Amino acid sequence: MSDASAGTGFLEHAPHFNNAAHEKRAAQMGMWLFLVNEVLLFAGLFTAFFMYRFLYTDTFRFLAFAELDWVMGTVNTGVLLASSFTVVLAVQAARAHKSKLVGIWLLATIAFAGAFLVIKYFEYSHKIHEGLLPGQYFSYDLSESIAKVKADPEKMLHINDANINLDQVGNGAPMFFTLYFFITGLHGIHVLIGMFLLGWMAWRAFKGEFARKNDTPIELSGMYWHLVDLIWIYVYPMLYLL
Amino acid sequence: MNELIESLSWMNDLLFMAESTSTLAPKIDFLHWQVFTITMLAFFGIAAVVIGLYIRYRRKEDHQVTEIFHPPLWMEAAFIAVPFITFMAWFTMGFHDFVWSRTPPKDSLDVYVMGKKWMWKYSYPDGPNMVDTLRVPVGRPVRLLITSRDVIHSFFAPTMRIKQDALPGRYTESWFEATKTGTYPIFCAEYCGLNHSTMIGSIVVMPTREYDAWMDDAKRNTYASRVDLGMTDQQATMATQGARLALEKGCARCHSVDESNASLPPTLGPSWVGLYRSERTLADGSKVIADEAYLTRSMMDPMVELVQGFPPLMPSYQGILQSGEAAALTEYIKTLKKDSPTKLGAR
Amino acid sequence: MSTTHTVEDGFPEKHFLNQGTTFKSWATTIDHKRIALMYLVTVLFTFFLGGVFALLLRIELLTPGPGIMDAQSYNRVFSLHGIIMVFLFMIPALPGVFGNFMLPLMIGAKDVAFPKLNLATYYIYVTGAAFAIWGLWNGGVDTGWTFYAPYSTTTVTKVVPVLIGAFIVGMSSILTGVNFMTTVHTLRAPGLTWGKLPLFVWAIYGTAAVQVLATPVIGLVTLLVAAEAGFGFGLFDPARGGDPLLMQHLFWFYSHPAVYIMILPAMGVVSEVIATFSRRQVFGYKMLAGSTLGISLVGFFVWGHHLFVSGQSTFNAGVFGVLTMLVGVFTAIKVFNWVLTLYKGAIDFKTPFFYAMGFLYFIIFGGMTGIALAVVSLDIHWHDTYFVIAHFHFVMVGSVVMGFLAALHYWFPKMFGKMYSDRWGLAAGLFVFIGFNVTFVPQFLLGNMGMPRRYYQYPEVFRTLNVVSTAGAGLLGFGFFTILILLVVALVKGKVAGPNPWFSKGYEWNTSSPPDMHNFHEVPVLVDAPHAYEKVPEGTLKAEEEAKTEAEGAHHHV
Amino acid sequence: MTSDTHKSHGTGFYFGILLALGVLTFATFWTARHMHTGAFHTPLAVIIATVKAFLVVWFFMHLSDHVSSNKAFFLTSLFFVLLMIGLIVGDAATRLPSANPNFSAYKEMRGPW
Predict the structure, then answer these.
(1) Chains with at least 3 CB pairs less than 8 angstroms from chain A
(2) Residue B231 covered by a domain
């Protein structure tokens, strides 16, 4: 065992690694590979979305415009971006071995995540209330919604500009909400997992664990959280804007 | 070429191939023989090399030191090129035949096929409905429009070398031209539940005259044993069913079905007479052939492919027409030809 | 392990098997070798289970009409056979057992990159397997292992627990892939560059990449189908505007590359075995390593060849048809290189070598029939017939199980330090080989005749060939049973193998058999390429070293 | 881990990235809803999302500091995402029209064959 390049040798590491830097490199790589798998997991759903969007173009575009709340979607995007920022600061604090600070930034992140879920809750309950539900549970009268849009010249401006054929709207509407709930639901589960992960890290941080030890756990959970943000960056325009 | 295939037909017996009874079968068999022969040659070649090398280079001592041998470049290139060229040649031939097998000739006889747990139902546009037994004339291309009522089935006629999955709620196509009279099996090749293995039908290939006689007979007499297809009345052929539907659902209010009577005012929608397979110019200037798919789409989504010069008035019949009814209407439209005014459903 | 063997015999006093013999020392071990053995026991059990169901199927098919079971049971049994063999045996078998055991030894590492995760993947796998088997026991499923919608979403059988089991097993597979890829990247011993990696390591690396990239998609599909079956969201339901073909696309996006999860490690094993037993570096190392990566990459582009007659577009059929040919080209490259490795070699025809040659036979026929199936027009006739069954059993049972057996016989002395009887090994191998051919060659012919797969009853014309096939299955089962007895006998009273019974220059033979708990007593420095048996031009320093190691090797001569 | 192994960017830098992300989010929204870009707004939204994703991956996730294999892994995953979406949606676009849901707003599009 050739031991340790200077400067990092004092850190603990598992016996099958040469030194802590070596171990950290492996951990980062493992995490990236895990994230690759997460990307492919969502890609399956994205494929389904694009396939049905291709088949039911007008419906999907109309529903994205008229039935999804762009305000909530945009606010949620902002919330997630901000949470990503606080995680970065936590990682930075961990690198500086300021364990308490790590905990504080992580708590901030969890608060943002909570806000995200609360907004999501309002969005969901509104959809459920209206009957904008997946598959067989869909019970919403689209003709009313179409009439409302037709009556609003400003909205018609967008409809015409986006070339949405209102006569075609209707077929495949339950499918849009199937996909809406699957994509946001799977994403929401990831948010929840992320919250637990960050909560655990925060607990460790307040115990002062990151004052001495290396910052790998924080960095890896941070990467996981960024992935949650990354997925949302695509989900947001896909569902709310296109 | 045909003589060559004929003279090699013993290969089929060697390979236990099903009898070959369609125009597609010799194409597939011929390629199969080539693939088989080359595979066997390759295998015996490789086996001979392996055995030869084993005899020549057996180990003499436990720690024997061997000679260095670097592969020459041509050899590496050959390892890539030979299989690549062979496989691509096979693919090209195969894909050529595949496209051919996917392109039904224009004059083919249409039969609607529906898979249902666990039986096959056939519906002749201007004739009877049949269960399990499909009757076709020899020497005439038959196009199958295949659908399913419940889960995925697969229409498989081994002697015709055709197979096509039946998807619920939509139509897929296949076609064949029988070359021999006789009775041949039909299997379901896609697992569909409990009695999947008994979902067996048969194709009866008849001489043309016999077939015509049978068809005339079938048109005249309604079969007592006729079973509800879920597409039509028990008593009606698809076209007469379509004619009735055209009146019931109000199609004929806007679409002319009879142009022989010049005293009638022009209709709101395009005339149905001579519509089938004609080229339509759409509102956006593009052109489309009015085939089954187009007609069905126009019933369900009339505004998407609106014909030039007509007002956007027609409502969607989505949910109003069952899929079988749409097929019946389509068949009715197909009977309306310019030169021969139909007796059916005149206003 | 009996302790009568002495260090002088070449049997180490302390090794990973006797460092702690309590149940807890096994259940909580993070040693890759022990985890590998736990995998070995588990996959042998699932293989046995799947094999029993296969025999039941073959017995049922002896007669054209109903035999020992009714149609519903038959449908469940073939689903059981498929699900157990694919998800619980084939996918974890080679990476889980031999990947785990050999990968660190071959790259001169003390363990895999994440030992705790490694143990976790084993338990996740066991949990998933338990879930699936529980579901299969409690009513079972009758969908086949492919779970095609809308049949799987409307069947009355309980698909949900089985799907969740498959999802969990998939997670285990992903994490194994993550672990192995990281291991290869970060834990190679000093001197071991990418250009010198043993081909088995390349194969495991290619496999791991497929596991990471493809498995999440099957995870998603199982979840979606389960949700669909449970709640009717209509994602694949044509009545609600869904597209059943989408399910097939997503399913095969995983399940075709999954074939390469199974076959690539077997190819790696064969590369090692052929090199050792002909005392040559594999011919065309770069081509073999390159074609491994080529297969794992191109393996992703070919899934559509399962959908040629399903209603997929003709255009897509063409694209997938061409791309499928490329897999054939890569496989052909491998076959040529393996064969030419024998050239100017020093061939020793031992049991592992027999299995490697058996593998070659099966991959030639399995591969060539695969190419034939990918020729689009031929697939019209063969799709979903017994021809396909025979083809993928040639590849998945013939090749993969031959690879598995080659690995088992090749590394058995390394894993347990004991040697089995080579004569009995060859005899058992012959049983398996002949039994396999008698089972599956008639199935090619049945496919030619047009017998569709998953048939409970069949027309009388198919009878003779089915009877032959069943007889072969009996012989095959007998062969496997012989191997089991052979190896158990060897385990109990086999001779001491010594560290390097095959006089191999593969890296894993550098340590004692069975290996030490920490694999190596000191960090190995790997200068020569693995399997460097060849004469080196005279006068170089390397040649002298070579001679020295030769002399040392002679010490271990049994 | 001491700072010498990492390029340390500082809070200000990260805040800058956050601002850029916010601006880009607004840009997606604006181009999609108010700029009347017509058919172009779909690719535009994808491009903007990709730029945002790049910022997050490269700076927030520190991919820029990581070994090149990590970069390769991530790029590979994106390649496979495109492959999957492309070939599957491509199938829907080129298959026999009647093999698609017959009430989809789907116009006949034929492939080269």
Answers:
(1) B, C, D
(2) no
